Amino acid sequence: MLETVVIVTKTLLGISLVCLLAGLYRPWYVLWFLSSMNRLKVIKYYGGTSMLLAVLLFLLNYISD
């Protein structure tokens, strides 16, 4: 069960990092649903999500050992 959560967290972290990089290149790619798009919003949405998932992954790895 815990392995599944770790795999899902890794997958979501990877997607979030790819979206972060794509959004830093062209914010419209990942923020198409907002009326105003800029790189700061990309960092807020996808950078914050990436950091949260990285901390969660670290805690899950710490618990499973």
pLDDT average, as an integer?
Answer: 93
Instruction: Report the β-strand fraction as a percent range.
Output: under 5%
The geometry reads as elongated
Number of domains: 1
Class based on secondary structure composition and strand pairing: mainly alpha
Q: Helical region count? A: 2
Outline the biggest β-sheet.
Answer: none
Radius of gyration: 14 Å
- Low-pLDDT regions: none
Number of strands: 0
N-C termini distance: 14 Å
Determine the fraction of residues in helical runs and give it as a percent range.
over 70%
Describe it.
α1 packs antiparallel against α2. By secondary structure, the chain is mainly α. The two termini are 14 Å apart. The protein has one domain.
What's the SSE blueprint?
Elements: H1 2-25, H2 39-64
Descriptors:
2 helices, mainly alpha, about 60 residues, about 75% helix
Summarize the structure.
The chain has helices at about 1-25, 40-65.
